[in-house]
Design brief:
Blueprint: H1 21-29, H2 37-60, H3 75-90, H4 94-113, E1 118-124, E2 130-135, H5 138-155, H6 161-165, H7 167-191, H8 202-208, E3 215-216, E4 219-220, H9 221-227, H10 230-249, H11 254-272, H12 274-277, H13 281-284, H14 290-303, H15 306-314, H16 321-352, E5 375-377, E6 383-385, H17 396-410, H18 421-445, H19 447-455
Antiparallel strand pairs: 1-2, 3-4, 5-6
Amino acid sequence: MSSEQPDAQQVTSNPRPREDVAYEDVTDNSFVYEFGGPPGAAAMMLGFPVLMAYQFLCVYDNHGHFLLPDSLGDLGPWAGRMAQRYWEIAAPSWAGARIYLGFTFFMVSLAYVCPGPVMYGYKLPSLNGQRLAYKCNALWSWWTAVITSLVLHFTGLFRLTQIIDNLGPIMSVAMLWSFFLAAAVYAVTAARGKKHRASGNFIYDYCMGVCLNPRLGSLDMKLFTELRVPWPALFFISLSCAFKQYEQLGYVTPELVFMVLAHWLYANACNKGEECVITSWDIFYELESWYLLFWNLAGVPFSYCYTSIYVLQNGPMGFSIGWNVMCFTLLLVGYFFWDTGNSQRNRFRMYWNNTLIKRNAFPQLPKSFIKDAKFLQTRHGNKLLIDGWYAYVRKPHYTADLVMSLSWGLIAGFGSFFPYFYLTFFLIVLVHRVGRDDARCARKYGSDWDLYMKTVPWKFIPYIY
């Protein structure tokens, strides 16, 4: 174990090379079926849109109550009624297309023109060790979008309440757009003969992707679709609900104030820490795919917004001051550990990759960077952080994320399951992700990983799990 750190802390276009290129080359070119292979991929591509449509009808059209058939014999007619009702209130429309695609292309234009530092990712074995450059201007784009939207709303040029009024058609457009974009990425990649880790099965390859780094000039599509659309869109849905409630009641309830704050904190953190994301597994390894595009462009904003819609339709909720204070406290405490935990982990990586820079984005929290951090030096070459929050558990940022997602449900009470969908779904995702990460790291580090797990034995909560 060591706390030795390099002297330099500046950005460079030629950072210190990693020592694990040989392993990463093997990993980058290996292939294994995930999610049950082609049948699982087909089930996801059918099931996720159906799930989103069902949830939308339950929350938007039925005040958060489950819609169920009267009997097993009614299942077919019930499905027909559900499909007909969805088409009536959520069919794609020109209004929905203008709002969703207008927002998306506005964010694309900001990605090209806003200022920001140029950062470099890890060496990519698929590009013979080349490092890709990323223009990290998400923070400027985010704040430009927020200010522009408020100007449009208060001048009457575009009332933000149009988002919640047209939410169904907007969601349908988003789902169709993600299918189209995934098909375009697949077709262009196949036409260029650049398929990466392809299985040879069209359904699986379309779902899980065959392109590692799709780019439109300086715009990295994978980084863009992970940060610039999903979380800002989620924030604007909640903000739209707040403005709608103000029109209805003349004030905004604490529950919707909470959700606007929660989604602003999340979107702001994702965009202010963009430079930390470029060294993540998602960017380094995951393929741009229907799976990523659908969930980022449609799933995140239109599945995680149900607490906001529920409290709009059922408000004012009438909870006690103590209950609301508890929820706000959970949110803010969870956010502190989530923001600082992600920062500790990613800035440790950037420090040793010689790409750490000083950012003054709001909010700057204490404990975001650990000076002289302790780490476990592996024979493989990488350093495993065992300091800060990572001295107590291996995934503190996941724990904090779950605390925040719990607060998103509690603020709506216990009258509906749907405010807790995010918590439920996210827990399933994290369990899968932790298992995948542990298996990958065990192969990568061998006995050093065993030592690491003895040094930091707990995954989420010290002395519990």
